[in-house]
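Lab notebook, page 48
Experiment: co-folding of the full assembly
Goal: obtain a model of how the components sit together before planning crosslinking
Operator: M.T.
Materials (sequences as entered):
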Amino acid sequence: MKKLSPAKVKDVLPEGWRFSGKTLSRKFEFKDFKAAWKFMSKIAKKADATDHHPDWSNVYNKVMIKLSTHDVGGVTNKDIALAEYINKTAE
Amino acid sequence: MKKLSPAKVKDVLPEGWRFSGKTLSRKFEFKDFKAAWKFMSKIAKKADATDHHPDWSNVYNKVMIKLSTHDVGGVTNKDIALAEYINKTAE
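Observation: model returned without errors.
Model output:
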């Protein structure tokens, strides 16, 4: 996995995500805790299957997610793919 | 639910938890993401059942939890009970 250049990340950045230079981040808000947890559970399953995990936090109906690839100290295609999966899951 | 006095909180503080004056907090570390997620899933079920939710974050095998009762701006017996449940679950 190669670290993507900032220009490349901006080029392929999934909708709604911010790029800080080192990480992707996005906040999600749901109806209630149950809905937020259902969303997180799907992502956890995906993370486990792909061995690529989010840094995330949850307060009731809100979920804040950060993605980066620690091994390369930046954003890779793995992060882009996970961000896209997360967007699809949130719909 | 009444806010507990600081003295009372210190009196009944479950093992391993810190009391900041407004919240309880504790960090947990597991073997891997799968184990951390299993732990979180049990807590989520309890939170949903009791309608009392943690503020928490997760990075791979680490889980950081904060507990407080927003309605009263402090720590109540609900937080003590949830902290005790969390400790039992982590064992």
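Interpretation: Strands of chain A lie at 18-19, 24-29, 55-59, 62-67.
Next step: discuss with group before ordering constructs.
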